[in-house]
Automatic annotation (TrEMBL):
This is RNA polymerase II-associated protein 1 C-terminal domain-containing protein. It comes from Botryobasidium botryosum (strain FD-172 SS1). Residues 1-260, 276-304 are annotated as: Disordered. The keyword Nucleus applies. Residues 302-365 form the RPAP1 C-terminal domain. Residues 64-75, 122-135 have a biased composition (Basic and acidic residues). InterPro entries: RPAP1/Rba50, RPAP1_C, RPAP1_N, TPR_RPAP1/MINIYO-like. Residues 87-125 form the RPAP1 N-terminal domain. Transmembrane segments: none annotated. Residues 16-25 have a biased composition (Basic residues).
């Protein structure tokens, strides 16, 4: 029958029975519960740990004391008997075992318990023996040290209890023993949680509170007391511990000391209270405040800052009082290290984070401007950059935080990104990619080139957009955030594209800062849109699609006098709007606004004319916009879409009359800075004249006459002449004394570049206007505009500019920044327009040579965006280089075939095409980059894809950017040969004019003639072609035969007499015989060929093909052979030497170039350092023994072998080298000819020199001969001595 269970009256179902209910409990557990029922202990009563005479009371026994003692003795006796019996049994079993069994048991025990089991058992045995002796000799009863078993004592009413399963077999349970005594057990009191002190500095107590004994009462005698001993936090007997409280001292402690604070505010606390340890006096921390020696940021990480971000002097770290808030942790020195600030900037307490960001802002300001109130802190630039990067990372993460935390984070980012570049931004930096403005140096190669590249813009920009859409920050913080976005827009195309593509960023920005409901608008918002449009034409189109230009139109329709804003603000908004429309117009975009807003623009023109003195910036912006729109109207087919603005509209609107009215207003002003207004006016008038040449009657003759009539008086003796003369004089005074060095302060460097840019802009505009006023119709007698600068003065100024050392520093990090070259665009424009102005009077051969020399130098100074200027120079140079110029100036005999084919006109298409390089292999879909020209032209409007200059890395010779044709390389004259070598893939042949007809030989001749002329006019100019460029160019001529069929050697280009003669004349100036003193090469052939070959093809591969071509078709052609020798110099890798001496030794017989005809800076390039490679030395010996090496190469082999044999020539004294030298000498003596042996024995050369044969064999002095003879005598055989001794005696 199933057991019945009472049902629950509430549910009607049987009650659930717990598995630990009474029926299911074990007999052992039920017995324990029954014992607990008989307990009658008062809650909170504390049993004490007494001595032996009180043990009966503690264990709840009713027997007498003597019974307890007898029972204890009886128990110990039984235990000892049992131990003795087991010991005897174990000894008997061990004695019966064999040696193998004992060893097996021993091995099993060691494997199971480890090798230390023997020591453990030995220690236990000794402990038992010691305890036994103490027990027998001691008369005092003791408490056993066995861990207590917490249990309930047995009730007297129970006569029996279950046998414990832990009892030993054969041992009776003391609960059922005949004497009726229960087991002796120790119990603990039921203490409450309040009785246990938990220290806050320790981990939280476990859920199970351990039962600890409370202190004994005074009436409890014989109880051993337990006291607290600090600071070890262990319970120790009072008899063996020192008192925790200090000895009483009646003296009053000094005010402010930790003891004074404890007595005053914590009188009940112990002096060793752990919770008061923070008051302890800190130990001297000056040494500990410094990081370990050798740490990467040992200087920057040891600096401590106060709450303003200023460094605290080292001697104040331990003396500043704590009430200043500079002691964050107990024991720390005063102030916060950078690590502390960065850690606290991530605090969970907003107020603390805000304070730390405020301190970090002060640190950043100090890194930039220095600290005036603190001692000098010497930090490397790499350390400063690392500190800024770490701070920027923390601050950028907190920009989205609410309240003061976000505001202070914005301030920190603003200090790093905006204020650090305030020098450049204050000088109206032209649009340039700032991505690598500060090129890394050797000491900071692990740092990024710029900090903005480390920002996670994909996450940061949406946060900024949210800040603008929900403006819950202070106005100051939002303005700083606006300037941060502006700095990001100026940085690089990547950041500008990220801004324009971030949803709601631009709309929310414009809505807040330009909406009339948000207070005073900020022109910086328009400046951001302008910066984004500068980056690319695609961005400009995206801006137009969003309707942003129409939003800005209201600032034109409301002129400053009628605007709701103050005049200064309204004028600034108007200036920025005109600048924005000018940027769009330079792409040929949104010119329709000139038609749709004709009436507001007409009112604006009138306002500008009447306010030329009050707002020069407004006049300048209006004139620049007029200039660009006039250029667009010059050829309406170049705009997008076409015909948005027409020349007839320009005439109808009367813009020319407005220009003259502005000129009249400016001529009456005696005060004010007009250095930017005059260039803008002259450029606008020049653009109008250039457009009239195309669209006006009789090539704009009437327009030129009008300009000359209205402006010539000013240029002859009026304000225009004064303005030009002032700028020219400033340049003459500034340039000669301008010493540019790596240590030049950056601010001074930028200021001088800005001054140079402004004054060259003015002179350039004057030259452009004079050229535009030049009479182009010889049948008329129209006079030209007079410029207050003679041709000789202009030429001297150009040479002063073009030879100045600032060109070498304009794109480097020192004095930096790398973007400084953007300030030199007006200089390149001035040089080019000087050439235009000079070409008008270039008649005689002397004038042509001067013009040609200036033109060749100017070509090497042009930047991206100057391609149109470079094209004009190249075409003019091709016209000037004629047979008359060459024969009359230098007397060269050039074949008539060159001039019959058109002279230099043959190669002009190739040179022009090189200004816009073709995409590299694999980048065919990549769009070409066209930078807008400095002077706006119709061609620039049609083709420009960006108005932002590329980064300064394009000037790196080690990694040139093939996307840009400018600046031109030093060997630009050899460019047509590059296209011939790649005629199968080059697109230039598809763009050649229909009447172009030239052969490969014709192109090569013209190229070599151009190269020789350029090399002659440049001379020792820094950017001229060097030895490596000439050698590489001649190699290209021979490589034209690579991969071609060679049925007839007469068809080979290099065998043409004109080609051969021109190449020989080019290399002759770089041979050893033509140099009075040795010249060191500035770079190698590998560096010279990097731009031509690209990064994927090493020069070694090109040289290998060149050697194999020589071996196949040269027939020992002398010039061909001489071009193989330069890479054999010791500065090149050993692979080049192995290629000829080891892999192609048969070629050596044909290389008979004499020492004087070697193309090198000196003989020493091939002699030092001495060759030490065993393979090469073996190749040299084989060549000497076989006689395959001749002339100069034989001398080179002889030198390296002799230097590895004779100790006096620099051979080291190592045993290995000694043995190798002996073997080499024996091989030469036994196998070589008498001449080879004599030359090896008598060869003498001082280290670092290059004395040629035969003088190197006739050196006077007997010391080195005697030394060699002694060395040979010490080891050589008799036959060897007999042969060599006569040579050394």
């Amino acid at each position: 029958m199933a057991p019945t269970t009472a049902a629950d009256p509430k549910t009607g179902f049987p009650r659930a029975q717990h598995r630990l209910s009474k029926k299911s409990k074990s007999a052992f557990l039920r017995a324990r519960e029954e014992e607990g029922k008989n307990l009658n202990l008062r809650d909170g009563q504390t049993p004490t740990v007494g001595s032996t005479q009180d043990s009966a009371l503690l264990l709840g026994s009713t027997h007498a004391d003597n019974h307890a003692e007898n029972d204890h003795t009886h128990e110990e006796g039984e235990e000892e008997a049992w131990k003795s019996q087991m010991s005897r049994e174990n000894a008997r079993r061990i004695a019966e075992m064999t040696d193998e069994e004992r060893e097996q048991e021993r091995t099993e025990i060691l494997e199971r318990f480890g090798p230390g089991i023997g020591d453990l058992l030995r220690n236990l045995k000794e402990a038992r023996s010691t305890a036994r002796k103490e027990s027998s000799t001691s008369s005092e009863p003791t408490i056993r040290t066995k861990p207590p078993n917490i249990s309930i004592p047995q009730s007297p009413s129970r006569s029996a209890s279950p046998v414990s399963i832990l009892s030993r077999p054969g041992t009776p349970n003391r609960a059922t023993s005949p004497n009726g005594k229960g087991p002796r057990k120790l119990r603990f009191a039921n203490v409450t949680p309040s009785d246990v002190y938990v220290y806050e500095s320790q981990p939280s107590s476990p859920r199970r509170v351990l039962a600890l004994l409370p202190p004994p009462t005074p009436d409890e005698e014989g109880v051993e007391k337990l006291t607290w001993k600090a600071p070890s936090a262990t319970l120790t007997p009072a008899s063996s511990s020192t008192p925790s409280e200090p000895s009483s001292n009646n003296e009053e402690p000094e005010e402010g000391t930790p003891e004074y604070i404890r007595r005053r505010y914590f009188p009940s606390a112990s002096s060793n209270e752990p919770s008061l340890a923070w008051m302890a006096m800190p130990k001297p921390s000056a040494p500990s405040s410094k990081p370990p020696a050798g740490s990467p940021d040992s200087q920057s990480s040891s600096i401590r800052y106060d709450l303003t971000g200023a460094p605290i002097p080292l001697h104040l770290h331990d003396t500043l009082p704590s009430h200043l808030g500079l002691h964050h942790h107990a024991g720390d020195a005063a102030g916060y290290t950078l690590a502390d600030l960065l850690l606290l900037a991530r605090s969970t307490v907003p107020a603390q984070r805000a304070i730390m960001f405020s301190v970090l802002a002060g640190v950043v300001r100090g890194l930039r401007d220095g600290w005036k109130s603190a001692e000098e802190v010497a930090l490397k630039e790499s350390e400063k950059q690392d500190m800024r990067a770490r701070i920027l990372t923390i601050a950028a993460e907190a920009i989205g935080e609410p309240g003061s935390v976000g505001a202070r984070a914005v301030e920190v980012v603003w200090e790093i990104l905006v204020q650090s570049d305030k020098d450049a931004l204050s000088h109206h930096l032209p649009p340039v990619d700032l991505g690598d403005a500060d090129v890394t140096t050797a000491e900071d190669t692990d740092l990024p080139n710029d900090l903005i590249s480390t920002l996670p813009l994909r996450h940061l920009l949406p946060i900024i957009a949210g800040r603008f859409s929900t403006p819950n920050l202070p106005v100051t913080s939002l303005t700083q955030l606006l300037q941060i976005v502006h700095r990001l827009a100026l940085h690089s195309p990547t950041t500008a594209d990220a801004i324009i593509s971030t949803p709601n960023l631009i709309p929310s920005l414009l809505d807040y800062f330009l909406s009339s409901g948000q207070g005073r608008p900020d022109p910086m918002a328009i400046r951001i849109i302008t910066a984004i449009a500068h980056v690319s034409k695609a961005n400009a189109l995206a801006i137009i699609e969003q309707g942003i230009p129409d939003v800005f139109l209201r600032f034109i329709s409301m002129l400053p006098p009628t605007s709701m804003y103050p005049v200064e603000v309204a004028t600034s908004l108007l200036v920025e709007t005109l600048a924005f429309y000018n940027v769009l117009a330079k792409y040929g975009l949104y010119c329709i606004i000139a038609t749709t807003a004709a009436q507001p623009l007409s009112a604006l023109a009138s306002y500008v004319v009447s306010n030329t003195s009050s707002s020069p910036a407004l006049v300048t912006a209006w004139l620049k916009l007029i200039e660009t729109w006039v250029v667009c109207a010059r050829d309406p087919h170049r705009t997008t879409p076409e015909h948005e603005i027409l020349w007839s509209q320009i005439v109808a609107w009367g813009w020319a009359d407005d220009l003259f009215a502005i000129r009249d207003a400016l001529s009456t002003q005696s005060e004010g800075d007009l250095i930017e207004v005059w260039p803008a006016l002259w450029n606008a008038v020049a653009a109008w004249l250039e457009g009239a040449v195309v669209n006006g009657i009789r090539n704009g003759e009437q327009e030129r006459a009008t300009v000359i009539d209205k402006m010539n008086d000013g240029f002859e003796g009026g304000v225009e002449r004064a303005a030009v003369a002032h700028s020219v004089q400033t340049l003459r005074e500034t340039l000669p004394g301008w010493q540019v060095k790596d240590t030049t302060p950056r601010r001074e460097w930028l200021e001088k570049l800005f001054v140079l840019s402004r004054h060259t802009t003015l002179v350039h505009a004057a030259l452009r206007l004079c050229v535009a006023c030049t009479n182009r119709n010889p049948s008329t007698s129209t006079s030209a505009l007079t410029i207050p600068l003679s041709s000789s003065d202009l030429l001297d100024l150009c040479y002063t500019l073009i030879m100045h050392p600032f060109w070498s520093y304009a794109h480097t990090a020192s004095p930096g920044p790398g973007y400084a070259y953007a300030f030199l665009r007006p200089v390149t424009a001035f040089l080019t327009w000087s050439l235009r102005f000079g070409s008008l009077s270039c008649v005689t051969l002397a004038d042509q040579r001067k013009w040609l020399s200036l033109a060749a130098r100017t070509l090497t100074r042009l930047f991206p965006g100057d391609e149109e200027l470079a094209e004009w120079i190249l075409r003019e140079m091709a016209k000037i280089i004629t047979d008359d110029l060459i024969s009359g100036s230098w007397g060269w005999g050039i074949t008539d075939e060159v001039w019959k084919k058109g002279g230099m006109e043959v190669i002009v298409p190739f040179l022009v095409h090189s200004l816009h390089p073709e995409p590299q292999i694999g980048d065919d879909d990549q769009e070409k980059v066209y930078v807008a020209s400095y002077t706006t032209t119709t061609q620039s409007i049609a083709s420009a894809t960006t108005q932002m200059l590329p980064p300064s890395s394009i000037f790196s010779s080690s990694n040139p950017d093939a996307s840009y044709g400018l600046p031109l390389p030093a060997d630009w004259a050899f460019t047509p040969l590059n296209y011939l070598l790649r005629s199968g893939s080059s697109k230039v042949f598809a763009t050649l004019p229909p009447d172009w007809d030239a052969s490969e030989v014709d192109i090569t001749r013209a190229t070599l003639v151009m190269t020789r002329v350029i090399h002659e006019v440049l001379g020792s100019y820094p950017n001229s072609m060097g030895r490596e460029e000439i050698v590489l160019g001649c190699m290209k001529v021979f490589m034209l035969e690579h991969g071609q069929p060679h049925s007839d050697s007469a068809d080979e280009v290099f065998r043409d007499s004109s080609v051969s003669s021109l190449m020989s004349s080019l290399v002759s100036s770089f041979t050893i015989s033509s140099q009075s003193t040795p010249r060191t090469a500035s770079r190698t052939l590998e560096a010279a060929a990097r731009r031509f070959l690209g990064a994927s093809t090493p020069f070694y591969q090109f040289y290998t093909d060149f050697l194999e071509l020589y071996d196949a078709i040269s027939f020992s052609y002398p010039l061909f052979a001489s071009l193989l020798i330069p890479p054999l110099a010791m500065q090149y890798a050993i692979d080049y030497r192995k290629l000829i001496w080891s892999d192609h030794p048969h070629v050596l017989r044909t290389l008979r170039t004499k020492a004087g005809d070697i193309i090198a800076g000196g003989v020493v390039e091939f002699l030092w350092p001495v060759e030490a490679e065993a393979e090469m030395l073996g190749a040299y010996i084989r060549a000497l023994v076989s006689g395959s090496a001749h002339e100069f190469l034989r001398f080179v082999a002889l030198h390296h072998v002799a230097c590895n044999i004779w100790p006096d020539l620099g051979r080291d004294g190592q045993e290995k080298s000694e043995e190798r030298a002996k073997k080499m000498l024996v091989a030469l003596v036994t196998q070589g000819s008498n001449d080879a042996v004599r030359e090896i024995v008598l060869y003498n050369q001082k280290e670092g020199q290059g004395v040629l044969a035969p003088m190197c064999f006739e050196t006077e002095g007997r010391g080195w001969k005697a030394e060699r003879l002694r060395w040979i005598t010490g080891w050589a055989a008799a036959s060897l001595k007999e042969r060599l001794a006569p040579l050394l005696q």
